[in-house]
Design a protein that fits this description.
By secondary structure, the protein is an all-beta fold. The protein is 3% helix and 45% strand. It has one helix at 96-102, and strands spanning 8-9, 25-29, 34-39, 45-51, 54-57, 75-80, 86-90, 111-115, 122-130, 142-143, 149-160, 170-176, 185-192, 195-202, 204-206, 209-214, 217-224, 228-235, 240-243, 248-251. The radius of gyration is 20 Å and the shape is elongated.
Length: 262
């Protein structure tokens, strides 16, 4: 396996391509942080990836040009393009039958997304999106918010707590112990339904140990053997990631857009 730290970019960046839509994901640790002793065979840090905004349809929504309604109660997550236009996309159908039909042709797996152009709490336009196959990144959507077409009938929606998002998406970090601590790696694993991808991160010498940095996390390993490791795990006060091709990009704050304000 190639050990390319560049594949997981510890960087601040912004969507570059015009009308490439981006999904921002909030990082939330699910394992303790700070100084502690851990089982060396278990992840030193696990973080959930949650959509920064999640809404639920209050009534069925029929996409433009379709006669098939997205049912009331369906969850949709926020996407934004480089001009700041926003939409909400339905979740990918991960049923085995549907996956078998589109396994080798991601662009064929189109799903509806909706736009509230006048901000009245009702979707009034729709576009379609698909999820490209990528490595080492959270899910990405490809589509055009700007190309959204008017709905025949508006559909109301409501915001919901992002923790109601049920798709398991995580980034975890595990120590790969070598002959010496200085030669050891931190293995980052991006897990999402259907597959997981790994990359090994090389550390740098630090006072009393080895330090690894990735995606707003700073992991210092002070000592380790096959059974346990003494570590200090620090994470950014706020952290978000988005996929950019086959890599994950970290940002410490969200763009200044109305849809992203708390």
């Amino acid at each position: 396996m190639k050990r390319l730290l560049a594949l997981i970019a510890f960087a601040v960046a912004s969507p570059a391509a015009a009308e490439r839509i981006t999904t921002f994901w909030k990082l939330e640790p699910v394992t303790p942080t700070g100084a502690r002793t851990v089982d060396a065979r278990e992840p030193l840090l696990v973080e959930k990836m949650l959509p920064v905004r999640l809404v639920r349809l209050r009534e069925p929504a029929v996409p433009a040009g379709s006669d098939k309604a997205v049912p009331a109660g369906a969850m949709l997550y926020l996407v934004v393009n480089s001009a700041g236009a926003t939409g909400f996309c339905t979740l990918k159908d991960r049923s085995s039958g549907h996956q078998a039909k589109t396994l080798f042709i991601p662009v064929a797996d189109q799903r509806p997304c909706f736009v509230d152009r006048d901000g009245d709490g009702r979707f009034d336009a729709s576009f379609s999106a698909f999820e490209p196959y990528t490595r080492l990144s959270p899910p990405q959507a490809r589509g055009s918010v700007d190309a959204a077409q008017p709905l025949a009938v508006k559909a109301a929606y409501e915001p919901v707590d992002i923790h109601e998002f049920t798709v398991p998406l995580t980034i975890s970090y595990r120590l790969i112990l070598r002959s010496t601590l200085a030669k050891s790696w931190l293995r980052a694993t991006v897990d999402r339904p259907g597959h997981s991808d790994e990359v090994d991160i090389v550390g740098t010498a630090a006072a009393g140990g080895v330090r690894f940095a990735a995606l707003g996390a700073l992991v210092t390993v002070r000592s380790a053997d096959k059974e346990k490791a003494d570590v200090q795990v620090l994470v950014a006060p706020a952290g978000y990631v988005y996929g950019n091709g086959s890599r994950t990009v970290f940002v410490p704050s969200l763009p200044h857009l109305p849809a992203l304000r708390d």
